[in-house]
Amino acid sequence: ARLNGDTEDGQHRLGKRTLTSSQLASALGARGYPTTVFLQPDGTPIGTLPGFIDRSTFLQVLQYVSSDAYEDQSFQTFVSSQTK
Predict the structure, then answer these.
(1) What distance lies between CA 32 and its chain's CA centroid?
(2) CA distance 29 to 50
(3) Is-contact 25 16, C-beta < 8 A?
(4) Does the global pTM surpass 0.85?
(5) How many CB atoms sit inside 10 A of residue 3's CB?
């Protein structure tokens, strides 16, 4: 989903709270834009990725998150293990 964190418009649910767009961005840890936020199915944040990310790096991040590798290894370790 895409969110404009610079506005107070919009109503968004996070858990049991209803937040404006800027409140939601802040609650998810967005400090600048663009920021990509990865969430577990229940809405719990996994982590944030600030700034523009090139395509190949972004694909590696998607593999890292989707494989649950973030639970037990750093991104650097994951990338190193993929290139061997």
Answers:
(1) 13
(2) 9
(3) no
(4) no
(5) 17
Which of 9-32 are b and which e, b meaning 16 or more Cβ less than 10 Å from the residue's Cβ? eeebeeeeeebebbbbbeebebee
- Please, which residues have CB within 8 angstroms of residue 37's CB and are 6 or more apart in sequence? 28, 29, 30, 45, 47, 48, 49
Q: 4 is written with which tokens?
A: 């404009």
Residue 4 to residue 39: CA distance in whole angstroms: 18
Backbone angles phi, psi at 58, to 5 degrees: -60, -40
pLDDT in tens, the chain (84 residues): 778 888 888 898 888 899 998 899 988 888 888 999 999 988 888 999 999 999 999 999 999 999 999 999 999 999 999 876
Measured distance CA(5)–CA(35) in Å, rounded = 10
